[in-house]
Amino acid sequence: MARVLRVLTQLMGWACATIGLFHVALGNAAIPGAGSAGATVDSWGRFMGAVFVGYGLAWLWAARQRPIPARAVRWLAGIFLLGGVGRLLSLAVHGWPQWFQIVLAVIEIGLPPVLVWLADAEERALRGDVEAVPARR
């Protein structure tokens, strides 16, 4: 489980940092349907892209720790889940977005519980709290 947690943590870090840089570089062009949204939305999107780069770097920091700190994973996964909740609120208020935003919402709602479960399992294993599995005869 430690290896799966490390791979997912690294993947989260690189994906978030890359997506963030993409938004900083392209502004409105990085958001489907926002190309004509104007300077205010472009400014906000580029700023939030930079924040997302920092978020990705936090995941990469966690991935480099030995062991990966479960507390950091819980916090980072909670932030990711909050982003998914924000998408659900937007859906409720404004209706269905572009299809890729739905895919992202599914990932943002579904992946955090997996990450927390893996981090908790790894933390328990490191403490020795895992029940021994009886040997088969």
From TrEMBL:
<feature type="transmembrane region" description="Helical">
    <location>
        <begin position="12"/>
        <end position="31"/>
    </location>
</feature>
<dbReference type="Pfam" id="PF14248">
    <property type="entry name" value="DUF4345"/>
</dbReference>
<feature type="transmembrane region" description="Helical">
    <location>
        <begin position="43"/>
        <end position="63"/>
    </location>
</feature>
<keyword id="KW-1133">Transmembrane helix</keyword>
<feature type="transmembrane region" description="Helical">
    <location>
        <begin position="99"/>
        <end position="119"/>
    </location>
</feature>
<keyword id="KW-0812">Transmembrane</keyword>
<feature type="transmembrane region" description="Helical">
    <location>
        <begin position="75"/>
        <end position="93"/>
    </location>
</feature>
<protein>
    <recommendedName>
        <fullName>DUF4345 domain-containing protein</fullName>
    </recommendedName>
</protein>
<dbReference type="InterPro" id="IPR025597">
    <property type="entry name" value="DUF4345"/>
</dbReference>
<keyword id="KW-0472">Membrane</keyword>
